[in-house]
Amino acid sequence: MSSFSCWVLPAALLALLCCPGSGEKAFEVYIWPEQLVVESSRSLEVNCSTNCVQPESGGLETSLTKTLLASQAQWCQFLISDISQDTVLLCHFTCLGEQQSKNANISVYHPPKQVILKLQPTSVTTGNPFTIECSVPGVAPLESLTLTLLRGRETLYNQTFEGATVAPQEAVATLNVMAHREDGHHNFSCQAELDLRSRGGGIVRGISEPQVLNVYEPMQDNQMIIIVTVVSVLLFLFVTSVLLCFVFGQHWHQKRTGTYGVLAAWRRLPWAHQAQVA
After folding, report:
1. Is the whole-model pTM more than 0.70?
2. Which residues contact 194 (CB under 8 A, 6 or more apart)?
3. In the prediction, which pLDDT does 226 show?
């Protein structure tokens, strides 16, 4: 092997190690967390870092209010305040004259703070319809929300929503059902579930106050007949007792005075006296 070959190969390997290809990045920029989910008007902390040993500069770009909490040569930590809308954060560093950056998306949500359940009507006869209505005001994002109507622990109905609007809206789920006897033995409730896992968050839940449905059995025809009969008998007995008391009273008055009380009272009337004189 020639001496030329002996030094060409090591030189080529050294060139590959020292001069990376044009498609490779000389250093990396990191942002944590990469997906940010935050409740509206809240604050969060963001960390920007790099593997460049001595970066020339670095920072965070955003349209929101930011405060630098701490920093070192390879990292910096910021507080992002009063987040009210979805936005993008940009971490950047410059190393050896080259700049690299990394983005992070912020998703804002409005939790289901108030879950309202209504039963209409609140009292119903078995076999008749009633309505279960659940409403959640000011919730977002609506496409991540599920409303579940419950009877005790039993799921009666699930309502999901569509649409990509980020503004908070009112969500409503309605179910019309027929009343059963066992409905009066269970509480009705509504659970709101905001699933933010696809955005890097968790599941936010809210539940309504339990509501009770008063269920009555319908009155049968034979029951109505019995009630009418009993009332008629009682009325007849009352009238009969009044008449008997009147008759016995008159009979007792006749024995004591020799005349009936009704006849004596009639004779004392003015027109009766005039008739006798004539």
Report:
1. no
2. 109, 111, 112, 139, 144, 145, 203, 204, 205
3. 73
